[in-house]
Please model this.
Amino acid sequence: VGSGKTMVILASVMMALPQKSILMAPTSLLALQLYEEAKKYLPSGVKVALVMQGKEEGEYLEADFIIGTHALLYKEQLPDASLVMVDEQHRFGTKQRASLETLVSKGDKKPHFIQFSATPIPRTQAMMESELLDVSLITTTPFEREVLTQNITKQDFPNLLTHIKEEIAQQHQVLIIYPLVEESTEVPYQSLEESRGFWEEKFENVYVTHGKDKHKEEVLLAFREKGDILLATTVVEVGISLPRLTLIVIVGAERLGLATLHQLRGRVGRNGLKSWCYLYSNVKANERLIQFTQTSNGFDIAKLDLKFRDSGDILDGTIQSGQKFKWLDMSEDEAVIHRAKNRLSLHT
Model:
């Protein structure tokens, strides 16, 4: 997270010219941000188009680089492209990713296909381990990021409030993630709607949004410019860059997957500011969360996810976690897999 994948995407577009490139992103907010960055950093002669549900920018049939959401899959006619890319691939199903490639394939001619992710799902990680996918790793970030991750419980709340006030006093921003929008008897945590009164009473410039909010894009843009605290669900997992964000609290952290936790943690400290990620949980000594706090490497976290969730169906892809080989553990038997790879390479 924050390693510079966007620059790799734009460099790939330049290498593909004069052939066309297509990029699919999981949310309209992320697609819009990628479109704005493409317009900013690519040479003015490169035609860029945006395709989203209910909104289009530029002529996509004539563009050199088409950026869109899953709305791309419903276009009757997409131009031939030599390069197809999927950003945040863990947010798409196997069939969705394959559909985009099929749409721009001509018989035996298939485009180059690149998928990007800071946190591969267990199935993708297992495919990488078994060399069913070629992989390139970005192992450094443009600047050193200092993000302290800590598990907290109800007794830590007074100290958390003090810390939030300190960050806001420095013109920094705070993000609080709730597990659900409205009250539920099945979830032992307050919902976003139940909690907002408390925050709005104690602080100014509090913004609220969630997945069903039709104005979430406008809320996030307004928060970026004027807000102190944003109350949200995991809708902010990917997308808009918030350079002043230095503190995130994830309520009910044990209910979320490690990939989602890592993406959320990646929202803070994007400009090198010292930042904090607090995992608020009623469950003490959760082994998964303890291990998560000890690493900030997305691929190490993907391996942890593989360990806790299993690899799923590697060949078919309809099941992306929860299945494993009878005699081989993809997350633990790395030495065995490495020996098998070496033996195979000697005979090919």
In short: The radius of gyration is 21 Å. The chain has eleven helices and twelve strands.
